[in-house]
Design goal:
With 415 residues, this protein is of the alpha/beta class. The protein has a domain at 81-107 and 208-392: Rossmann fold, CATH 3.40.50. It is built from 12 helices and 13 strands. The strands form 3 sheets. It has a 6-stranded mixed beta sheet, with helices on both faces. A 4-stranded parallel beta sheet has the order 8-7-6-9, with helices on both faces. Helix 3 (110-123) runs parallel beside helix 4 (136-148), helix 3 (110-123) crosses helix 7 (209-228) and helix 11 crosses helix 12 (354-368). The radius of gyration is 21 Å and the shape is globular. The protein binds pyridoxal-5'-phosphate and zinc ion. Residues 7, 9-10, 12, 23, 25-26, 28 line the site of zinc ion.
Amino acid sequence: MHIALFCSACRAKHEHARPQNVCRSCGKPLFAQYDLGAIRDSFRPAMVRTRPTRSMWKFAEVLPVSNPSRAVSLGEGLTPLLRGQRQGPFAGFENLWIKDESFNPTASFKARGMAAAVTRAVELGIGTVALPSAGNAAGAAAAYTARAGLKCILMMPADTPPANIIESVAQGADVYLVRGLISDAGKIVREGCQRFGWFDLSTLREPFRVEGKKIMGYELALDMQAALGTPAPKLPDVIIYPAGGGTGLVGMWKAFDEMQELGWIGSERPRMVAVQAAGCAPIVHAFEAGQESAEPIKNAHTIAAGLRVPGAIADFLMLRAIRSSGGTAIAVTDGELMAAAHELARGQGIFACPEGGATWAAARKLLDTGWLKTGEHTVLFNTGSGLKYTHLEKLPDLSVLDPADDNWHRNVRGT
Ligand SMILES: *Cc1c(COP(=O)(O)O)cnc(C)c1O
Ligand SMILES: [Zn+2]
């Protein structure tokens, strides 16, 4: 397999057979490029669908791996695309879908990116990786490096959810807490890489995490084809995505271009919506101001740890995808996103993470303003499990029943 590496901004080519981070001339993210012409006839949707592989490595031809049987895998990807039940607050949507990424190993879609990046790191002979994480990336990095036998250094803001810290330590990573935000943790990682020779696995400062996340775009096209019975892979009208670093959003955008080059889809694209938290919405501000890049947010705050990214290196790529798709960027408050997560739990049976809740809060707003039409095929991404965020919830005040009390049934409500 031959992968070329080129800069997503200035297009400069980079040697792919050795470890690389950002572009050496302009500092922007590097992207992998496959010889799609060479696999166009063999890498077909029907072939992929019938392949027995039960993970995202079904799509090995467009992933950074020389020998797919050596992929570092925990069964990531192939998450369900669930149809929204039309009840309660969801009744106004005729064609709502939820891609439920909480099914992934380590209970978030960060598993996809880490599977790809750690697989490639092993092929390149890298021994120690380091990254900043305010949440799920840490647990996923710890899991995949544990499996691959690599050393993993994690720099985590001190207010990272306890579940993410605990799972990272449990899976053998070297964890340090950092005073500040993920951007401060990232600065320490970059200095540590200089000083100790660690390999920087920060998202989009490493070329392959985005490759793992892009597979969501391929899966979505096959999921919708199966659900709607269309003759060819099909994309929805609108994708609503909770954007932090933007890896999944720019990854899927890249996947759509690849699928078009492969002849899987035409030139149509979903309208891409980036949802951010009101206390940390750099992309929303830049989108509204008509800017091509985003100003970093000072004093960024939100309880949705995955959205607590004050400045993203892929800002210009997110803004480009949003604009050229006719999409939009929208902020929701912490109150709105938590309330929406609870609605997903009660109305859909999906105990969503706060970031997943944000996509539903955005969908309701966009339907109210008329930006979204009721019949449009709209896909929400629930990017992780609510089980990692129970520290945000108050344990409810419940009746305690005493089995020795013959009148226990008097305490049962609604009978
Ligand atoms: C990391 C994360 C996000 C943001 O993902 P990007 O692709 O980097 O924008 C959203 N939700 C959850 C649960 C996350 O862990
Ligand atoms: Zn460049």
